[in-house]
Amino acid sequence: MQSLETIKGIGPKTQKVLTRLNIKDIQDLIQYYPFRYDIIEKMKIEDLKDQEKVVLEGNIENIPTLFFINRRLDKMTFRLRAEEQLFSVIIFNRGFLKPKLTVGKKIVVIGKYDKKHQTITAAEIRLESIMETKIEPVYHTIYGITGGQIHTLINSSLELGNYESYIPEYLEEKYHFLNRKESIYHIHNPKDAILLKKAENRIKYEELFLFMLEMNYLKEKKNNRFGIKRTISKERLNSFIKTLPFSLTEDQKKAVEEIYQDLSNEKRMNRLLQGDVGSGKTIIAFLAIYMNYLSGYQSALMAPTEILASQHFFNLKKIMEQEDLRIELLTGKLKVKEKRAIYEKLENGQIDVVIGTHALISEQVLYKNLGLVITDEQHRFGVHQRGNLKNKGLTPDILYMSATPIPRTYALTLYGDMDISSIKTMPNGRIPVKTYLRKTKDMKDILTKMLEQLKKKHQIYVIAPLIEESDKVDLTNVVTLKENMEKAFGKYYKIGVLHGKMDNKEKEEAMASFKKNETQILISTTVVEVGVDVLNATMIVIFDSYRFGLSTLHQLRGRVGRNALESYCILISDLDKKRLEILERTTDGFEISEEDFLLRGSGDLFGEKQSGDMSFGLANVKKDYPILLKAKEDSLEFLKKHFEKEDYKRIRNIVEMSTSLD
Ligand code: ADP
Ligand code: MG
Fold first, then answer.
1. Could you tell me the pTM of the whole model?
2. Residue with CA at minimum distance from ligand 1 atom 22
3. CATH of 42-132, one of 2.40.50.140, 3.40.630.30, 3.30.930.10, 3.40.50.720
4. Nearest atom within ligand 1 for CA of residue 284
5. In angstroms, how far is CA 446 from the centroid of its own chain?
6. Which of 114, 227, 556, 593 could covalently link to 119 via disulfide, CB atoms 3.0 to 4.6 Å apart?
């Protein structure tokens, strides 16, 4: 792995920013692909459309006026003459350009057009005119680095990259792929649309081929394995179930029975438990843990967030109050010493259940006799992580849980080797959450609705897409929202905040206060999306809802309506009405995920890029499904006929490493 320091222009500061983008070496950098391309092409005035993107060339008509709105925000306005018409141009945070914007100068303005006011809100001003159509890569950025800077760094690293191919030659030839190096060059510097497409196709195929190869290899290995044969006392299980505060639904009973059968017999369990948000999957996991415990084995339960892990920890402890299971929570925030103590106990068999996040797999945790591994919200974990987990015991039984129904065809391709238990009906007494789509201008009405809930002593989640103010996008953020909510409700109610930049302790405290009803309103980003369970919360208000996928919104909505109280979800959005209306219409997660799949591709289904699973650099399971199918077929054939050949040692190593069982 080549270190980043060798690149001109990367000092310690830039390196830090890059680390936050998950770019740790040169290879990461050159494989930091654009998330989209802008087509920059001069437009004629007659082609301008209201509220749409414009790229307009013209001459500056007057000296720009510059205002400072606050220390971090400036606003510049001027008039632009194009084809003998005048436009007002507004641009934020480009005050530094003012000296260059002299009267008469020819510039290009790129932004959004407001026809009624003849105004362009510019995102960008270019001082050179545009000669020909350009395809420009757009990169995800964060504070501290611009897309342009990333692009420059990539281009100065390209020569240093490693371009060894993961596609066997005979397949490269079969599909006439561009080679890997050319492809990556074109992806960052596309000359034309056709070449770009060819380049993308190669990289996508390569990603999917390797992925399917790993999946198929895993399956093959797994099928040849036996699990644990054990005896579980049905009586103890049943009498334990009787102590639960509710009776299980029919689907839950069936799932328990299926898991009981799997665990009891010698074949290794490899089961996916699917059920919509709120359908009650957690208790099934707990019962599986109990069965595993009764037969004398250790269990590991993994959750995608620390918040969820600690919630599971406390709930399991509570439910097992009368039993003597030894349960521990292993998370990143523990001190080294505390962690070490837990590792030791796991190895000595002094712990029966360990609950945690990736910490459970990312470190060298050894178990005395791991019999069961459960992953909650399975779609949030990566396939590599799954492989790793299996590494931990001899051949532990595996249970995956997911609230995201995966359309059947995809499920069969990706998880074809699993058995599936489904919970289709909700526990009794649930009232579907009432969902309303509202505009920003309805704020008064929304606040009134919130107050009604607060007066009933119920609690409210408020969700914003951003943590803090950003000069890049105009979106609601947690910090500002907190100020505004304080103004509206602060006198009588307490308001908490929860977001990803807080450290784990702060997050846990915020969550605990909300759980205990010490705070009545919790303002948060989507970190509350998965799994969080606070029964007294009856309303969730989601700002700028258009920013989220339907499945994410459905998950968020699942935070309320978890008992017999009437609950509400208010989606605030001035855009994207049609798509969001689907949520007003239905609370059926399956229907929603199908719609999402059609509309957005797999992003939401398999978790966002950062969160792991199915996260490919370029490929998208839905959009590139035909490529996936090809890759699946080819990888199966490769596995059968060529995998063991000396020529393919490198590919074999990669596959074996990332799927190592034990
Ligand atoms: P999810 O499937 O989204 O993970 P949970 O397991 O968190 O859902 O369950 C949601 C809520 O429903 C929890 O508060 C849980 O205690 C409760 N619950 C689960 N099963 C039942 C049941 N059979 N009857 C009543 N409430 C239940
Ligand atoms: Mg859950």
1. 0.62
2. 427
3. 2.40.50.140
4. 6
5. 28
6. 114
